[in-house]
Amino acid sequence: GREAFGAQLARINEGPARVEVLRTVATSSGFVTEHVEHEDVDGEDHSARRLILCEVRDGRIAEVTVYCTGEWDDKLRARHAAEAPMIRP
Prior knowledge:
Blueprint: H1 2-12, E1 17-27, E2 30-41, E3 44-57, E4 60-68, H2 74-83
Antiparallel strand pairs: 1-2, 2-3, 3-4
């Protein structure tokens, strides 16, 4: 549940963190949510973008699958912007 997910994030965090939920979309059996997590690691912003697929049964989340970019620092974000610019900002 929510407490277990929060505890997992707390264990892997290296510094103060904030999560920006970008969108949540209903599916036929639950929902998908997209968020970006930002962590302050020794004064540098580290970010990870995630898609979380949740299957809901009887009004409760029964299964969770998480797809994650891994942690990106300023150097990796700059490299990505130069090598694979996005159409949207």
